[in-house]
Structure formats: structure tokens, C-alpha cells
Write a structure and sequence with these properties.
The chain has 2 helices and no strands. It has 74 residues and is mainly alpha-helical. It starts with a helix and ends with a helix. The relative contact order is 0.05.
Amino acid sequence: MFIIFIILCFMLYYLTSAVQSLIQEIKEIKTKCVRSGNVKVEDFKVETPDPAAIMTQKAWQFFTNVKNVFGHNM
């Protein structure tokens, strides 16, 4: 019974320290990455390409490479 109690205490300590570490990481991310203040609108200027178009292009490149490896008769 005593061994089980020790194991449970260790697990509780480990989980508590993990949660505290995660909370600290979230605070750091908020202060470093999230801009807040008296700004009414935050405009993000990042433009990402359409993932569907990228996947289609990569698929066609793959099939073209397969076609070149096995010959043009496919």
C-alpha cells in the first residue's frame, strides 16, 4: 500500500510540473507571438498558396516522373 501511495504521489508531482511547464510555455508564446494592445484591427500580410493546388501539382509531378521511369507508353 505504501509503494502505491509513493507512486501516486510521484505521478501527481510529475503531472503538476508538466502542467506548470505548459502554462509557462503558453505565457511565453502569448508575449512573444501574439500582438495585443490598442490596435483595432490586426492585418496579417501572410499569403499562403492554395493547398489543393500544391497537392495537385505535386501529384502531377509524381505521375510524370513515374511515366518517365517506366517509359512513355503508359
